[in-house]
Amino acid sequence: MTRVVSASRNLRARTGTTGLVYVALVIVLVVSALFVAFQGGSLFTAANTVDLFTRSSLLGFLAIGQTLVILCRSLDLSVGYVAALSTMVAAITMAGDPSRIVLGVGVTLGLAALIGLVNGLVITKLRVNPFITTLGMGLIIKGYLDTRFQGPAGSIPAEFQMFGLSRVGVLPVSTLVMLALAVAVILFLRRSRTGFHMYAVGGDAEVARLSGIRPELPVITAHVLCSMTAGAAGLLLASRFGTGNSLVYNNGYELEAIAAVVLGGTYLLGGRGGVAGTVAGVFILATLDTVFNTLSVDPFVKDVLRGAIVIATVAIYARGQHTRAAVRLRFPSGGAPPSATGPPDPPTPPPPEPETAAQGGTR
Amino acid sequence: MSALRGGTGTVTVLLVLIFVVIATQNPSFFEGPPLMAFAKKAAPLVVLAIGQYLVIVSGEFDLSVGSLVGAQVVIAARLIDGDQAMTYPVIGLMLLFGLLVGLVNGLVTTLLKVPSIITTLGTMLILFGAVRYWTGGAPTGALSEDFRVFGRHGPDGVPVIGQLPWALVIAVVLTVGAILLMRSPYGRSLMATGDNDTAAAFSGVRVWRVRTLAFVGSSLMATVAAILIGGFAGVTAQVGEGLEFTAITAVVLGGVVLGGGRGTVVAAVLGALTVEALFTLFNQLYLPSTIQPTAQGLIIIAAVAYASRRGDLRLPERLRRRPDHPNERQLDSSRR
Description:
The complex is a heterodimer of chains A (363) and B (336).
Chain A: H1 2-38, H2 46-71, H3 79-94, H4 101-124, H5 130-148, H6 158-165, E1 167-168, E2 171-172, H7 173-191, H8 193-203, H9 205-210, H10 216-241, H11 253-263, H12 275-294, H13 299-321, H14 324-329, H15 352-362
Antiparallel strand pairs in A: 1-2
Helix pairs in contact in A: 1-12, 1-13, 2-7, 2-10, 2-11, 2-12, 3-4, 3-5, 3-10, 4-5, 4-10, 6-10, 7-8, 8-10, 11-12
Chain B: H1 2-5, H2 7-25, H3 33-57, H4 65-80, H5 87-110, H6 116-135, H7 145-152, H8 166-183, H9 185-195, H10 197-202, H11 207-233, H12 243-253, H13 265-284, H14 292-309, H15 315-320, H16 329-334
């Protein structure tokens, strides 16, 4: 009963925000097209469109996984390192031999899943903050990569390079795979039990637990899936480079993925949002990159603009998102259970008793 | 006593342990000059950790400090350009710039309700890009000798320790200042805000102002750290890279809870010293520098796991401790 109610509420909040994100995407596209046209170019040439889709595929994989983790009120800062490790593992396992492609993909995704499992277990069982866990995991992988490899290693057979390079019309195969994955994850979130539980745990782990959900399970699942999408991103990178390259962790993918998720309207404190919005967020970032590229903006100015645009967009969402109705969905204070005793809806001071009782509870 | 039961105890034990191992490897480490060299090296991180502590304890996050340190060092080099007379005006300008960055971070987070992880991530990108665009990719200019005094030198001829580094003096003064600040009404409000901003708002705390000031504090501390690092290490394009995560690691290692409301300045400072001692130990053990991140990662996870073993046994509570809190919505109602 509770689940149905909260699920329907989630759905409403989700579609509302997702709609806003797609409106933002259209606005960004139109403004960009006008801007490029004004500069005497055209945004929607075949080359630019291909470029836009190609950019979106890599970030898409990372951001879809990150969405799951953030929905569970967790975070994964290790995805860039997992992707870097995956390029290495894939390239070395395949070793240029087409018959080892399946093995290479399997080993890479398996290892990524294992890393996600460790992340999830450390977060839930050892109760280490997700930020620290995944930052630590990233550092561990970085140390391993830097010590073990001095440069590119391994080789990707030409057949597998097709995954990164070939395309159908203007749509790169990798983008199609990414979109298919997005659809699969949307179905997973809306139809499967674990998907519902992710929203529940992200919304309020304590309430979820009292409703009979084991809060560990969705969190661990989300981390495993997130690492696996990072592994898939690594496979894509490897297929584009044709070799394993450990230095891709320098590209700051994890922060970009988080930015895409937040741009997509998923709530950083968990429980609200979805993959559909994330895909739009990814396309917004990819559009910006393509526009900067078309106008050959200085790469450093690009960083400045990207930072400013991400802040501005999130600020605009924040105005729409945090209406009273949205606040009622969840109590706001992330740290403290006091509000769980009763959402402090009216702007009058709450009675002192629950306050002190809850104070005792946090200690 | 109660302080020792929390994170402070863990970090103290860890620090002593690392110092003991360092001493067995290198018995002369505690003989004044080497210890002062360590202090000189650790001072910037201590200062950064104090700044990050202010923000984290208020329930927010500052990812922009690494970029800000880099930006400030580059600004100093470019504007001073080896001219002694420019030293103090430029330091003043740097402090103003730090103040501005902190204000922007704080106001965007509190008034525009952007989650601080996104705000400071944005400022990080903006500072990184803007400074490189301004200098054309590589830092130009040079620091003056007067500027470098703070990070490198200090009064000579002090008994036992030889030279008393200015960096140590600055770090100690700022630590004491921060301890006093946390005991002042402002500090209490900051702590209350981090613990539960709704309750704090109901008790009359102007949450947005308290948090904005914390961001300003963090940016000013990053500026001081930039002066120390610039003096100590000089100007490179990589200055400040990854410092935000090292600072957060230091603070969390000290048992300060991400999400706010728990932890002390002393713990954060001890955390910074521990991280720096760890780096020193790695050097002494002749570990390849590339393996250091791995050890660092293992140790922070282990330390935080150990710290969270004690204390509350309710699992969901931990899951709920999320780093960033765009949690000012409730204030709309209380502010009319």
